[in-house]
Amino acid sequence: MRQGLRLQRLPSVQPGVALGMRALAIAIVVLAASLVLLAAGEDPLALGAQLVTATFSSTFGMEDFGLLVIPLILTGLSVAVGQQVGAWNIGAEGQFLLGAFAATTVGLFVPGPAVLILPLMIAAGALGGLVWILVPTLARAFAGVNELITTLLLNFVAALLVYYVSTGPWRDRVGMSNSSTARITVEVPEFWGLVHWGLPIAIVMALAAAATLAFSRWGYEVRLSGSNPSAAAYAGIAVRRHIVTVMLLSGLIAGVAGAFELAGTVHRLQGGISNNFGYLGIMVAVLARNSCVGVIFTGTLMAFILNSGIILQTQGITTSAVLAMTGAILFLTAIGDELAHYRIARAGARGS
Amino acid sequence: MIAPQDRYEPAPGTAPLVQLKGIAKYFPGVAANQDVDLEVLPGEIHALLGENGAGKSTLMNILTGIYQPDAGEIVIDGYAREFASPLEAIAAGIGMVHQHFKLVPAFTVAENIHLGWSETPRLASARKLEARTRALAQRFNLHVRADALVSELSTGEQQRVEILRVLARQARVLILDEPTAVLTPAEARALFKALREFASRGNAVIFISHKLEEVLEISDRITILRGGRRIATHDAAECNHRMLARLMVGREIVLADMRQRPVGAAPRSAAPVLRLESVSALNDGGNTALHDVTLDVHAGEIVGVAGVAGNGQRELSQVLTGLRRTKSGRIIVDGTPLQAAGAAEFGELGIGHIPEDRLRSGLAPSMSVATNAVMREYKKPPIGTGGLFRSRAATMLAREIAKAADVSVPDFSMPVRNLSGGNQQRLVARREMRIAHKVLVAAYPSRGLDVGAINTMLRYIVELRDAGAGIVLISEELEELLNLSDRIVVLYEGRLMGALDNERIDVEQIGLLMGGRALQQEAA
Amino acid sequence: MELLTGILATTLLAGGVLALAALGEVLAERVGVVNLGAEGLMAMGAMTGVATVTAVPSPALGFAAALVIGALFGAVFALATATIRANQVLCGLALTLIGTGLANTIGRSYSGMPSPAVFEHVRVPLLSDIPILGPALFSQNVLLYLIYIILPVALHYLLFHTRHGLNLRAVGENPAAADAAGIPVGLIRFAYVTAGAALCAGAGAYLTLAFVPSWSDGMVAGRGWIAVSLVIFAGYRPVNAVLAALLFGLITSIGFVGQARNWPVAAPFLSMLPYLGTIALMIVPVLAWHKVRRLMAAPAALGEPYYRDLR
């Protein structure tokens, strides 16, 4: 017979505890990575200092960092929005690519003044992302097919498509590269140094999404549909319609991310343009606990992590290593989220 | 009670089959069991009586190894035992048939019987298992279909499978948790007969129930639990209704006849406020769940719907509230037939719904109390003006509802699942009552609540009736239906078997209608 | 005629990778845990196979090493999902990220080079002389027989004709019922998730030691995900899963033929076929009629953590 302390599982998690768990997860992974570096003969503290200087003390550093923030906030927003109705949009990577693809189509083949073409490119990007999530959305809404896998498989298809056009029919004939398209002349204007207007637009989009969810009637219905579809149906809400709308929105946002990356940062369509932003967006959303405002902050954090990987490439830390670390953080966060439910109580306590 | 000549008389000095001494068990926020003693002798049927939440199921979960006690001892046949898992309890001869069956719906009867059983042959093809099952069924005289999928069985049949499972494993102590909740009166009688036979062979039965009538009928001794403690143990012969009720609840209960109208209450209207006309509807699986149902609900009356769960009650409440489309027939509200109306329209018309499973349909557990409270009125001003959702107005409405429901909410932004079951149910009830000016459909409103909470719910319903709404009360508690309804209809296999005026009702009659065709089969 | 043999042989090889991974996934999902880390496990297995064989030129050892690595990662995953009961989707995605990331990082030094040792072809006397079928079916590496015959038959028998199989299926269908019947739910989930993960990693080793005998960055290319989808399409049954994998092997094989023979369709589009095919196959069964839906139904408790001592 057990006396003394025992473990109890509570039904809800306190937000403070959940955020604390995430910080702990990141700390553990960073610590582990430092130990690995130490074992390989490197000095993690020196590397850390190098990172901070490289990122924050030069304009170049800040610009590189800032350019990474834009796509990460947007893909994070895309995944977080999808999660409002419980949908797992793992296809943000592919929708990103289709957004870039659609924007490229306009950029390369539609003549006109920049003031007209640029909005058209972004709109095309939005449409591209929406189209790419359409089939998985309909399959989920009408046939109950798991969207996680369908959206993800389309990532590979999108990558093949972009690879095809950028090394084939749309290959840059003029330049030296044989794996990207010609440079697209229409560009997103600069906002701060190299960082383009995509940044404030991304932040505004995130805030707008958060406001809509919290303060509009539609937002209330969406939140209810995601939390408990049966209860939403009981309240007379057209759950299926909301699921479709929100999933399409999620794809649209990822498409916009791709369009901005193309028109603002890279200016050419090429194979690696999506750069794992779609998958990292999942991380951004999970760290932010699917909060649309939160992705602004966790997107920035993720950009820092990614940027660090790029800076430290000379020290042998590749993007793959950063992805692995991101995976480890996700893993520990998932465990932490479950453990956050538990508390230690004294046996015999008439607790509250 | 067993007739004296059939009783098993243990030899003098025989240890009790089961002894629980000083058992305690705690969960977050509640002491489920405290200092509970229980003694069960061979040959006896021992009832465990108490209201919902008294700790009966918890105690039995401890005895069967599902929970570990925080304090106390388990003694079987005179030897102290610890059951770290259900397997150990089964090996000691303790078998339990739970209120919610622990069967695998996708498996056949034979597969379920042989699950987790050491005597199942290592190489077990479907045919072999079915043959063994038939042999077992014959040996214990329990009729089951070995090759049928459990998901296709009626609840009565499923219960037989559970009992056979337990008996096959040489159980000497059979524990049944609220077994008659899912049986017609005739099936219940058959069960009691089987139990008496079992006990007469030197085994014991622990019978958990909150129904005074059947506890007095079947048991030799009765132990009453209240608030997690053992209050008393008596021989059944010494007990009567009133005494047991008082021990169960801790105070005198006056079972008021709630059908009496106070002065000024709205009278029963002449014309029906809601009418189902020859309505048929399909269930989720595509089969017909309601056949040609015609039902009138008048303002100021309570219509009780009796019947064993699973005979179309769910579909009926869904059709009445717009959650399910009808296949044929019409729904007429205040004389106007409805055209393609959904749940939202029904709500706007003034039809409220207290759902069967509040956590699954009526509430979004992870969302805030305020969000849940305004679920029916979020489109109306002041919350829903201009396509917005004003959360401050929502919180104010939530406060009003919580006050009316007598629920103290420390923080309206906390998840609603943090509230207790009774609080949740009252919140849902008052939320629905606010919009239910024409009709309230209440499906099993007292399920899972203790007597105090049940009384409150029923008072709300009566209050609404007196204010002029029509109530459809779907319940499996005959006592409750008789107490409240002006008229009672019985649902059997999707058909309405007759409407009886409460004045002229006879429980036997209702029982017959509830059993419907089943009764004819047994006679054949 | 050589073409047919070639197609058949490639079909078997390409399908073999998917089949082994799918079998591993069936084990995990039958006890109620959805393992979305299959892709990462395959990557780790693929890299481990090549790395081992570079050190010790024994493909059998390489395969075994991959199984061990898979079991290790699988055990950690099982600990998180079955024991601690963390969210299975997140843990699976994390495992995929960790697996592919680690494999690409550690495997950089092996990238692009052919595997020093591969599984040799074993010729079955007489049978391998049958025209067309012979060389394709009976002159293959040993693992093929394991994947296509021994494992599916053994797993089918285990799941549907033994007492143990009945118990473990119950864990995936209704863990509360299994628990009440005395079956150790947590232990079974842990064991089979780990075993399934080992098989997934083994599939990766098969990829680099038998099919495409070399390792390169990102070569798994979604095969793990296709395997997960195949399991759904196959109704969670081992024999069906292997047959479905064979179908995909055929699709892949046709794509290769198209590329080799300069069909008018560009290579990238042919490469898209397996992914598009998988999506189509995921949607089609659901639109099928009710009886088929029930036969193919997922274990009822798939993806849900099981808490026993809970109010």
Give the neighbour order of strands across the main sheet of chain B: 6-7-8-3-9-10
Radius of gyration of chain A: 22 Å
**Could you say how many structural domains of chain B there are in total?**
3
The averaged pLDDT of chain B comes out at 86
Sequence stretches where pLDDT stays below 50 over 5 or more residues of chain B: 517-524
Q: What is the molecular shape of chain B?
A: globular
Main beta-sheet annotation of chain A: 2 strands, antiparallel
- According to CATH, the fold-level topology of the largest domain in chain B is Rossmann fold
The most extensive interface between chains reads: A-C, 45 and 48 residues
Second-tier CATH architecture of the largest domain in chain B: 3-Layer(aba) Sandwich
Which range does the strand content of chain A fall in?
Answer: under 5%
3D architecture notes:
The complex is a heterotrimer of chains A (352), B (524) and C (311). Chain A is mainly alpha-helical and 352 residues long. Chain A has helices at residues 15-39, 44-56, 59-84, 92-109, 114-143, 147-167, 198-215, 217-227, 229-234, 239-266, 277-287, 294-311, 319-339, and strands spanning 5-9, 190-192, 195-196, 342-346. Chain A has a domain at 69-293. In chain A, 70% of the residues lie in helices and 4% in strands. In chain A, strand 2 (190-192) and strand 3 form a beta hairpin. In chain A, helix 4 packs antiparallel against helix 5 (114-143) and helix 4 (92-109) runs parallel beside helix 6 (147-167). Chain B has 3 domains: 1-93 and 173-254, P-loop containing nucleotide triphosphate hydrolases (Rossmann fold), CATH 3.40.50; 105-171, no CATH class; 272-359 and 436-523, Rossmann fold, CATH 3.40.50. Chain B contains 18 helices and 20 strands. Chain B has helices spanning 56-63, 86-91, 109-113, 126-140, 155-168, 185-200, 212-218, 241-249, 313-320, 343-348, 358-362, 369-373, 391-404, 421-435, 451-466, 478-484, 507-515, 517-523, and strands spanning 18-27, 30-40, 45-49, 71-76, 79-81, 94-97, 173-177, 204-209, 221-226, 229-235, 272-282, 288-298, 302-306, 328-333, 336-337, 351-354, 439-443, 470-474, 487-492, 495-501. In chain B, helix 14 runs parallel beside helix 15 (451-466). The relative contact order of chain B is 0.10. Chain C has 311 residues and is mainly alpha-helical. A two-stranded antiparallel ribbon of chain C has the order 1-2. The mean pLDDT of chain C is 87. Chains A and C meet through helix 5, helix 6, helix 11 and helix 13 of A and helix 4, helix 10 and helix 12 of C.
